[in-house]
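Inputs:
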Amino acid sequence: MSECILQAENLSKHWGGLKALNEFNIKFYDKSLHSIVGPNGAGKSTMLNILCGTYPATKGVILYRGENITGLKSHQFCRKGIGRSFQKTNIFKDATCLENCCIAAQQRVGSSFNMFKSKHSSKHVTAIAEDALEQVGLLKQANTKASAISYGEQRQLEIAMVLATDPQVLLLDEPMAGMGHEESLIIIDLLKSLKKRYCIVLVEHDMDAVFELSDLMTVMVDGQHLITDVVDNIRANPLVQEAYLGNDDEVF
Amino acid sequence: MEMSLFLVQLLNGIQYGLLLFLVASGLTLVFGVMGILNLAHGSMYMIGAYLVYYFAAMTDSFWLAVVIACSIAMVIGVIIERFLIVHLYKRDHLDQVLLTVGLIFIFNAAQSFIWGNDPLGVDVPELLSSSIQITDIVEYPVYRLFLSVLCVGIAIGMYYVINNTKLGMMIRAGESNREMVENLGVNIGTLFTVVFAVGVTLSALAGIVSAPVVSLVPGMGERVLISCFVVVVIGGMGSIKGAFVAALLVGIVDTFASVLLPGMSSMTIYLLMALILIFKPQGLFKS
Amino acid sequence: MSVFSSKAEKVFIFAFFFIALGIPLFFNENTFYVNKISTMLILSIFVMSLDYLVGRTGLITLGHAMFYGLGGYLFAIMIPEYEVVNFWLYTFYVMAASGVIALIVGFIVLRTSGIYMIMITLALAQMTFYFFADSTEYGGLDGLFIYLKPETSIFGLNFLDLDNENHFYYLCLLSLFNCYVFCKVSLHSRFGRVIDAIKENPERATALGYNIFHFRLVSYVLSSSLAAYAGYLFSLQYGFVNPTMMSWEVSASALVMAILGGLGTIFGAILGVFVYESLHYGIEHMTQYWMFWMGSLIILMVLLLKSGIAGLIEQLVGGKRK
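Outputs:
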């Protein structure tokens, strides 16, 4: 197994009396895709939101390459190299696809407080943005307004924006949500190529995709860690069948 | 400061705070249920005061004037909601600000057109015009005590309505989830009209009952509105409990500041607000 | 890529500055109108700075007049009595001092957003209003007088006489032009890119690694300094400052002007000011209850004219380029 990049120790999140996440331990490895599954309300999204700094954890620590990053502000997680995509499409709809990625790329290149040079003057920013669009196959739409492309393409743009921030870890929150079969296949191909280079954490309901893509899988129920293992073992595990899939067989 | 004087100031502070609560509770109720920031809320305070002046002179009875003024205020509230505010529910904050600023302009013009710009006063009703002797030289007017009791009564009434009645249930549901209320089969349009009318009537009522203890001048509505903002910001927007605590706090601090720090009395409550914001950006009681 | 975001803007800006250059020649000896238009130019700077904040940064304030008034007060307080000071030096002082104040105020105000920010900016502006209105030291409601106008020599060259109405007019016009150019350039820059992104989607901008608080704060400080500069010019024109300059009505009308002109268009600020002020002037001549008509107009505008006059012109002149 390759190097462990991101790690959570005893991570907990309480909403008032509700324990959305309880004493969670997990490790994510470089150049692999680790998916997190579980029934609705199991705390998957909560965990993702804590791992990218949107919510502060109630207890526990997050280690990034051995460094404790628990107390950092939300925007600093991205700067460390933890990029995230959103469950609900969250892009700059008034801007072109290229501009969407430029906004992301500029953060990495810097000098965002420069008020006198045109935003189009940096070839470097544009190059990164175009590269990100090319990776997800959207380069042909570069100059189309983000609101004008199809829903599936918006989901691809969502990922392209994360790529443009030069992340080490990609936290993807249901990238295939609401997609048709054809569109899902595009994302699956994309993730297959991306996992050769990044550490990807995937929360997804499309089980076919999850089994096809995952190197490791974690099943969680009620904010608790149930099991983490390779795909084949998860499939065969009776505990998983009972706790999570018992009432919902058809996902297999 | 002498004990008796301190007591009088404290009573004044509480009375002012309770009046502020009356205004602020209407503002926060309308915001909490409907998501509308009504900048013309202070204008209703002013209109209430001028209406009671007008009808008290006409009917020779303060109490009758109170009833008439309240009814008119409620009708104004219904009209504004039905014809103007109803267009704002799907718009952003800026449109709310603009439309209600437009209303302030209209109310101010109406006030200056009908009653002129000279300060006016309303007599304290005879029934309550006496004073209570606290010490040999310090006395406290009964009317002010009446004001405090009335406001506390209304506060208790609101608490009861919100926690124990069907309307209260709808208000609470509206505050947490507007769509849910609609799914419950409640006619949201009617609910909004009622809440808005009640909200502005609370503000008008504050103006009405305080008319005998303040002078009626142009711009009085805006002054109250701003103090009200301070209350709501400190208490937490949308929280009636927060409005109550913050209104008392602001009333007492403001009253004592004008005695103890005459040079900067008008700034004290704003400094208090800034201080609280630094530590609690969402106010003391986040709803 | 053109600096203008639409054809309408290009046409308007060229036409406006071309006509504006000729105004003093046109009115020749009639300084009344030249003065009136100078004031509108100053107001345009103020409204433009507000549009920068509200229309482009997405921060709604009802307390912008606080900085407008502060610009005048800071100048009146800083100048030594009975001494002619240098205009450019004090421009720098006034803008720097108001910038520092904006930094502190912004630090408090920007911790909140939306409806809270509207209320807090209004409350803080009123606090400043009462501070000056109640102070004996700063003249109370009468304010402070500026007896001597500054001189404008720069490196020993002096080609502007502020006592001359026409000279002052051109100073205002130049200031407005500079302000417009600054707003356009900075909004077209890398900084502007982030500002636009934050306005449209603050959540996403944060997720992309931007500290949105810093960007908003910088924008707030810039906008406030520009507003202070406008107030400083206003106090020079009339030779006094008083608390009315920072009353909430000034903030509210400025907001109305910005929206009337077309929020976020920057050039719309000029349009908004000239239309609003002409209406104000016209209605006031007919009736003393102009506020009634103004109020009705504002309400109609909210209900019917969503993208302002600039939007209307853009529809007429043709497609937006952006």
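Remarks. Residues 123-136 of chain A form the longest helix (14 residues). Chain A touches chain C at residues 52, 54, 73-76, 78-79, 83-84, 86, 90-95, 99, 102-104, 106-108, 111-120, 122, 161, 165 (CB under 8 Å).
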